[in-house]
Amino acid sequence: MSKYDISKILANEPIYAGKAKSIYKIEENEKEVLVEFRDDITAGNGAKHDVKSGKGYLNTLISTELFNVLEKNNVPTHLIEYIEPNVMIAKNVKIIPLEVIVRNIAAGSLCKKYPFEQGQVLKTAVTQYDYKNDDYGDPMLNNEIAIELGLATEEELVEIKKLALKVNDVLKGFFDEKGIMLVDFKIEVGKTADGQIVVADEISPDTMRLWDKETKDVLDKDVFRKDLGDVLEKYKIVAERIGCLK
């Protein structure tokens, strides 16, 4: 039972509404926000869109479980509390407008833009930053551009990369034990009121590529992107394997 009146908060206009989540202000505590995971699913920067009943619930469950796994391994996140079915109370952070991507296996845009073979295991985890800005199509950028745009300082970029690689180490091992390959993922990070950089937003099959370790079946949003079948069934498989859906 939350200390907040969730229905009252959700009756207000969100302070931010993204493609699949809405953020609400908590009047009683400016250091916290309410995150609602909606049933929307998109691909191609919103060009493809659908609503899948129960998808928000699954992503909230999975994100909560993975945030808890990270916290237990000394990776700071914005998670405070999970509230059934599709709500999370989180730290009110200032999002750094970068999509931080870590790749273990070549897939997706990496194979479209560079001469990698789909499924090629990379010798070392590859990290990249994309500028989180729909108007510019979320372009890739390097440290110098990020600094010049005022998105982050050099010191913050070093910390962000270290954080992303720690996330990769923790989740790669965690998923491996569940019979799942962590192909790649993207995270967003934010700064708390006291300046700490934490993993924010979500970590779910919307933001990761996950393949079955034995069959190489796709268990993530690529099922929706490429019309490979029932995307919710794949999300349920992930939730069941990591133990958050009985």
UniProtKB/TrEMBL annotation:
Top enzyme class: ligase
PANTHER family given in the database record: MULTIFUNCTIONAL PROTEIN ADE2, SI:DKEY-6E2.2
GO terms assigned for molecular function: ATP binding; phosphoribosylaminoimidazolesuccinocarboxamide synthase activity
Organism: Methanococcus maripaludis (Methanococcus deltae)
Pfam family, one: SAICAR_synt
Reaction(s) the record says it catalyses: 5-amino-1-(5-phospho-D-ribosyl)imidazole-4-carboxylate + L-aspartate + ATP = (2S)-2-[5-amino-1-(5-phospho-beta-D-ribosyl)imidazole-4-carboxamido]succinate + ADP + phosphate + 2 H(+)
Matching SUPFAM superfamilies: SAICAR synthase-like (SSF56104)
Enzyme Commission number(s): 6.3.2.6
Gene name per UniProt: purC
HAMAP family: SAICAR_synth
Family: Belongs to the SAICAR synthetase family.
SAICAR synthetase/ADE2 N-terminal domain span: 15-241
CDD domains noted in UniProt: SAICAR_synt_PurC
Pathway: Purine metabolism; IMP biosynthesis via de novo pathway; 5-amino-1-(5-phospho-D-ribosyl)imidazole-4-carboxamide from 5-amino-1-(5-phospho-D-ribosyl)imidazole-4-carboxylate: step 1/2
Entry keyword set: ATP-binding, Ligase, Nucleotide-binding, Purine biosynthesis
Protein name: Phosphoribosylaminoimidazole-succinocarboxamide synthase
